Amino acid sequence: MRIAVVFPELLGTYGDGGNALALSWRARARGLPVTVEEVSLDSPFPDADLYLLGGGEDGPQRLATDRLAAASFRERVANGAGVVAVCAGFQIIGTQFSVEGDESYPGLGLIPAVTVRGTPRAVGDIALRVGSKFLVGFENHGGRTSLGEGLEPLGQVVKGVGNDGRVDGARAPRVWATYAHGPVLAQNPWWCDEILAEMYGHSLEPLASVADRLYDARVAALVS
Amino acid sequence: MGLAVNPHLLEDLTRHRQVLLVSGTNGKTTTAAMLRQAWGPDVAGNHTGANMPQGHVAALVESESPRVVLEVDEAYLGEAVARTSPRGIVLLNLSRDQLDRAAEVRLLAERWRHDLAGRRGVTANANDPLVVFAAETSFDVQWVQVPTPWTKDAFACAHCTRPLHFVDDGDWWCECGFRRPQHCRARIDDDGMWVGDELVDLSLRLPGQMNRSNALMALCALQGVGVEAHEGARRLEELTSVEGRYRVYDWRGRRIRLVLAKNPAGFGEALRSVSHEESVWISINARLADGRDPSWLYDIDVTSLSGRSVMCSGDRCLDLATRLTYAGVGADVVEDPSHLSHGEGDVCVVANYTAFREWRHRLETS
């Protein structure tokens, strides 16, 4: 599997590189082939199986959107590539988002999601119920996102704000999106493995690591 | 509480005094200590790092010295500049730090730019594009070229959002015309430290490249209040420790070097200073003063630790251990650091804000 970290210089404000690290470490530990490539603004846009989009500040978020719109990104996703989109990355793959005041900006339209400015800024721990499990992390964003008809959220918010105080993120075929920013896959090893299983097309052997202890500790701290 | 009583307290307390301010993400406390040391005897200041208006008032009430150095939290620079009529303002660097409670770093740069417009007496880091963006609205800026390894927050031009071009020697530019200032007052290069055409001889006792940069910024700013660079340099050589930072402790027979690092840029600097002979212990908390979000651990460059094993402690030791494990660095989780004293050999302890305070207390009392 080829993983591409998209524009880390623009979309890497919150330790977003941790997600590529978690995916590749957990794949390699099971002997699965994986490569990670960082896509810089100067390099040609690569053909990859899974694209990672992270968080970014307003100006960089706009620049990243422009560059992705001009690159072959949408075409590759239409042809089956996967996308993990976090925070600003989540806003970018929607149909529309607002930065710098209330001026709205067209997104890439991979999913029918519209983000407007919301106050107060959502800053703090976040926990979701995703099926029978919890997903834990930290959010820091000023967006309120509504999902278009037919688009499922990733999970139900049990702590924090997420899209609107009730649900967070979005889930579509081969698209995983959340406001739980930065190294969310590092902290939630089960979710990381779920993405890997779908990308490789088969289930994975269990893999014990210190990340399990971290996950248990964070769930205990956030979900009472 | 003083400010709630009288909003002009800072103005009253700084009237007829010469004030120097220093702000930036990393190096504030150290550079403020350098400014005080190099300025001469009897300089007032907020030694303990209480760098918001309350701390400024407390420091100014405590001493009547006519010379004052204040370190200023980045978010309060505008207020401090407006109320203290500073003779000099030192701007060190801007990078991501505690994003959960502070503004995003670009917004901070924009606020500085607005608050510093038309001011005089600014000494600023020319190698940091966000600092240049913030300071270029001031008059007669003294630009200083100092090594600035962390540029990850300045990739998109602050004027036009095009990608900036960086060159190895610290130079940078954008297609829109935004570029590193061409006329610099001082610089560090392979030959040493230059102020104007003069090579400044300085045997600094604080370690690291970053402290050489801080020292040059301080010496440059002090020229504005009549201190010659060579004269300041002589006094600076007497500085050995700042609020427990850079101190070496003898702890139950082990030599422990305690280093404060609060954000990715600071951590990179700290890890570069670790020698092969030292064991590495890292301690991470995520309390209010540290920032509640430890995501930044993934922004630290830990490649220099590969092949080593790190003792992980602090409230968020599991976040740290996971981060290191995923990077291929050995990580041992230590619930109670007191037990570490039983081993042998020299140690470098790197800790973030509240964890540093705990370590300092542990090393000084047990």
What order do the helices and strands come in, and which of them pair?
The complex is a heterodimer of chains A (224) and B (366).
Chain A: E1 2-6, H1 17-28, E2 35-39, E3 50-53, H2 58-70, H3 73-78, E4 82-86, H4 88-93, E5 96-98, E6 104-106, E7 113-130, E8 133-147, E9 155-159, E10 167-168, E11 170-172, E12 175-178, H5 184-187, H6 189-200, H7 210-222
Parallel strand pairs in A: 1-2, 1-3, 3-4, 4-12
Antiparallel strand pairs in A: 5-6, 7-8, 7-9, 9-10, 11-12
Helix pairs in contact in A: 1-6
Chain B: H1 2-5, H2 9-14, E1 18-23, H3 28-39, E2 44-45, H4 53-62, E3 67-71, H5 77-84, E4 88-91, H6 105-116, E5 122-125, H7 129-135, E6 142-145, E7 165-166, E8 172-173, E9 186-189, E10 192-195, E11 198-200, H8 209-222, H9 229-236, E12 248-251, E13 254-260, H10 264-272, E14 279-283, E15 309-313, H11 317-326, E16 330-333, E17 347-351, H12 353-365
Parallel strand pairs in B: 1-3, 1-4, 2-3, 4-5, 5-6, 6-9, 13-17, 14-15, 14-17, 15-16
Antiparallel strand pairs in B: 7-8, 9-10, 10-11, 12-13
Helix pairs in contact in B: 3-8, 3-9, 5-6, 6-7, 8-9
What is the gist of this entry?
The complex is a heterodimer of chains A (224) and B (366). With 224 residues, chain A is an alpha/beta fold. Helices cover 29% and strands 32% of the residues of chain A.
Number of domains of chain B: 2
Strand order of the largest sheet of chain A: 2-1-3-4-12-11
Show the largest interface: A-B, 36 and 33 residues
CATH topology of chain A: Rossmann fold
Quaternary organisation: heterodimer
Helix proportion range of chain B: 25-40%
* CATH class category of chain A: Alpha Beta
Shape of chain B: globular
Cα-based radius of gyration of chain B, to the nearest Å? 20 Å
Task: Output the CATH class name of the largest domain in chain B.
Answer: Alpha Beta
Structural class of chain A: alpha/beta
N-end to C-end Cα span of chain A = 38 Å
Strand count, sense and closure of the main sheet of chain A?
6 strands, mixed
Could you tell me the mean pLDDT of chain B?
A: 91
The tally of strands of chain A reads: 12
Assign the CATH superfamily of chain A: Class I glutamine amidotransferase (GATase) domain
CATH architecture of chain A: 3-Layer(aba) Sandwich
Tally of helical runs of chain B: 12
Mean pLDDT of chain A: 94
Which structural class fits the helix and strand makeup of chain B? alpha/beta
Supply the number of helical segments of chain A.
7
